[in-house]
Amino acid sequence: MPKDPTDTLPPDSPAVAALDRGRRLREATPRRDHAAWADRPSEDAVAAVLASNEGRIPELVPVRMGRMAASPFAFLRGSAGLMAADLSVTPRSGVTVQACGDAHLVNFGVFASPERRLVFDLNDFDETHPGPWEWDVKRLVASFVVASRENGYAEDACRDMARTAARAYRTWMRTYAGMRALDVWYDHIPIEAILERAARARNRATLEISIGAAQRRDHMAALGKISRKAADGGWLIRDRPPLLQRLSDDDPSRAAVPAIYRSYIRSLAPDRRNLVERYHFVDAALKVVGVGSVGTRCYVALFAGPAGGPLVLQVKEARQSVVAPYVKVRHRDQQGERVVSGQRIMQAFSDIFLGWTKSAVTGTEYYVRQLYDMKYGIDLEGVGRPGMELYADVCGWALARAHARSGNPALIAGYLGQGDVFDEAAAAFAVRYADQAERDHAAFVAAIRAGKVAATEGV
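Below the sequence we write its predicted structure tokens.
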């Protein structure tokens, strides 16, 4: 087996030419430049977060603020727009991919393929948009430093996590540069590959527990979590405000469900449309999800099949991507379609129920997916250093695979090279930006205590 995955490429192939073009990109943007971060006032961060509340459901905004105040990592999770603005002034090579837009370490995880195999991949695409590959990498490595500090690791270990993720991205991009386009497209990360690495890292049991839980997160689990038995023996969504608020029979949002549902069905391929049309609507509720998404319009809709089996869909508002203001790339007018298209490009396997729709009453655009489909995030709080290092390695792999599907892997690989120059630069940036995130969080908490920001804690 060749040491360099690109050694077997024919000398006159387009990939070899792309590798050479990538190397030449270093002349304009040296790889060491990616270490750069110029500190900015943290007051700007508070203002940016408050501005991002525009258009959200007012009574849920304090919940979002409270969740972001919980820790520096929670603040980083909820401030994708702030970091997109920050990244827009950092060096870039000029190579565009379909970017995630919010590639922090919690937005990766385990879910089921249509064949019901567990795979590891990116799993959040609210902000997906064409953009520089560097922005996803830098958000990922910075998130590892912030999370590792909260886990109590020594500072050199925190930096190592960022370096590991960047190195995995670089080496896997080199691998994809030497592969045929179809092979890149079909590539995926089976859970068995992680188990094998976990066994070598002596952390197998922790991950097996997570995988077992993932296998139990199906439609029946979703039904049990959100619903209750109705008087007629059927099911109704359980009302648990403010996190889950059932739509009453006279709620205008409930009345709009049939039209939204019909619009959603039209976005599906004919075979999926045939499947979904077998289900009938039962109930719906407004649901609070995540950190950054709190306050956007997100609903869960419960459907029943001909034999009584449930289907639980999440109908989530799609706003303009945080990346969009900073790139000169044509984007789709329908934001729900943008999310769906980006997810299908980046993910190895996408939810078979993935589609988009729009409210004819309010004009709000949505994308639709299953609430659960064995989707499970690995619990990293308190995990030991070997486990976190394994996770950083796999996240870097998954991000490289996702970018290689839409971008030119040989062009990126040529720019990155085979040495550790970029890895070190990315790790240096991660440490500096983690410092910035911690200062931003402190300023945000201070604004809450001073009464400048309304926040509800513990919700």
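The mean pLDDT is 91.
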